[in-house]
Please model this.
Amino acid sequence: MDSVITDPVTKAPFDVESVRRDFPVLKGKAHGKPLIYFDNAATSQKPQVVIDKLVDYYSNYNANIHRGVHYLSQKASNEFDVVRSIVQKFINASSEREIIFVKGTTEGINLVASTYGRKNVKAGDEVIVSAMEHHSNIVPWQMLCEEKGATLKVIPMNEKGEIIMEEYKKLLSDKTKFVSVVHTSNSLGTVNPVKEIIRLAHERNIPVMVDAAQGIVHSTIDVQKLDCDFLTFSGHKVFSPTGTGVLFGKTELLEAMPPYQGGGEMISSVKFEKTTYNEIPYKFEAGTPNIADVIGLGAGLNYFSGIDQAGAHAHEQALLKYASEKLSAIDGVRLIGTAKEKASVVSFVIDGLNALDVGMFLDTMGIAVRTGQHCTEPVMDQFCIPGTIRASFLFYNTFAEIDSLIEGVKKAIKLLKN
Amino acid sequence: MKIEEIEKSIVEDFELFDEWAEKYQYIIELGQKLPPLDDKYKIEENKIKGCQSSVWLNAYSKEGKVFFEADSDSTFVKGEIALLINVLSGQDPKDVVETDLKFIDEIGLRQHIAVTRANGLASMIKQMKLYALGLNSKQSA
Model:
């Protein structure tokens, strides 16, 4: 079945076996069984080119950047600086100055809440998030609202796990000072109509932040087309090292924002009487950055850009459809998150079975899934479930692997139902 | 039987298994056989809350010995509890406080379970020891 997936544009087949060879870990084993990696929504695997890039940096040109006058520092600075341009092109930002390196999505959101939020949200104001946010796009806004005496408003979702746009329209008001929504839900797979969400907020001049932690690897992200004011993602979910992330912000907003952390690099001049801050993006990058991993991020994004995007997307959608159909056909299995627009994330529960037990059983077969609340406790509460079993696919996964998952789920039911 | 003797027999049982899958299934079977806990004990004070499963632990004493009964929404966790109950229930509280429970490492449980689950297991043991400690100090007072 793996051979039938073709690129919808070029009609060329998507060569799964070829891309699998790029990822050394996929040749590995778990508990002595061939590894089947379905925990991609937690983190993607890394291609050899990214691993090589890290080794090359540490082996050949490890140095602190931007202030060194020597050869190594120059080389490291050049390799680091070029990544900003790679990211800019990758998300089609209008300027490199709009790209800030952060630790990950969580830091991206906290940065905006702490700087833009603190400056602009006042007592009595409202901040809007959706019902399907990851905790990292809830808690920073809650903290801000508590500090300022503002209110957090939540866009409800329907039983399929889709945002109810009519309710969103009703929430928007003169009190609304900010909207922060997830592009693609990590626990449900729902792809939200972020472009429309942004358009509606902009009618009232309300800025919008997009959490693209999942969206970055499943959709083509173009910040100018979306017209989002802020967007953030983590490198590790898009074939790059952990500890890397990107915050995009529109120039005029970033320039008007106070700095996040104080320290080196973010300053222009330091006197004991008064410090003046550096220009964007450096104003938000205090201290020595994560040099090696950011250089790895460049390699990861370049790798992803070199993949046949349309073919990869079509393959992931085919995997999603195949897994959803096969799982639904099993007696007692219920899919959680059945939105019309979905990324290749399948969350499900099994009647009478604990998700942890099933996840651990699948692990004995070498199948890596995620179980629990996926840092989206309010989502679980809405569906009245303690947690789900989540299998999330990337283009390097195969139909044969999904067959193993199905077999595993059937065996788990047989074993665990007493 | 003394704690060490029961531990030894559990380790011997687990030596029969080569693969983690077999150990998992054995623990599941233990969980399925664990007698249910009366609903009246499934209260907040008895709950050991974990990220992915909940455990209710009830303890009582009889003739100077400490007894445990417990339940969980996860069968695997119930299996872990069954192992602990086999070893610790009906023992002298002082022995429960002092035991290292070496068998957990010897059966290779910790190397296979996730850190969050290992923390859950540690919380259960801590709770059992705390109860035994309370009972022990009452008895020596």
